[in-house]
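Input record (one chain):
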Amino acid sequence: MTGNLITRVKAQLRSLTWRRALLSIAVALVSLWLFAVLLLVAARFIDPPTTAVHIERHLQAILHGKPYQERFQFVPLNQISPDFQHAVIAAEDARFYQHHGFDWQAMELAAEHDMDGGKIRGGSTLTQQLVKNLFFGTSRSYLRKGAEFTLVPMAELILGKQRILELYLNEVEWGPAVYGAEAACQFWDHTSARKIGRDQSARLAAILPSPLKRKPSRMDNYSAIIEERMSQMGW
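The corresponding structure, as predicted from the sequence alone:
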């Protein structure tokens, strides 16, 4: 009798411990999500000084004992050439001004390209990429995807299209320790983001899917495709 009572008590304690652990994890996840939302609110008014990708690349350099000199200068959207803005949108998110954070049509096309064994670009929107760059770095996991899925609509609601574009162009990786439009233009073309030309813009947009491996000078075919898309979009 006493043995059965002790067994039941132990089972109840284990159950209570698991419930507390799960509750603690849930509270922690919700707290992190709310903190991320607060950071998005701040990003509407304050230019982020760094991102998860910037930090990740710096740590990787330290771990591998490699020198790291970050090139990064935040500039307002009106100081970035319209050709540059249009080239990035045409290359990475042609329906940027039509969707609300997720482009289901592009995702479907990307999946079809994957099945066919070839892909020009993924189905992630600029908003998705911005959220990933700001908070998650380059890591991939179902947990990250889940968090991203809930934060992307919040980014659209809080930031709006123009601020999303401004943040993306200033924070995205454009080469080894090169972040943002201004640094990219200076590093690759020795000019400013304000003065960058149409062909140069298309070439820079072409390396975005793999900025640590691609070089603008080798992007003849893809940059031509991007310029054709720009023309089709009225730019």
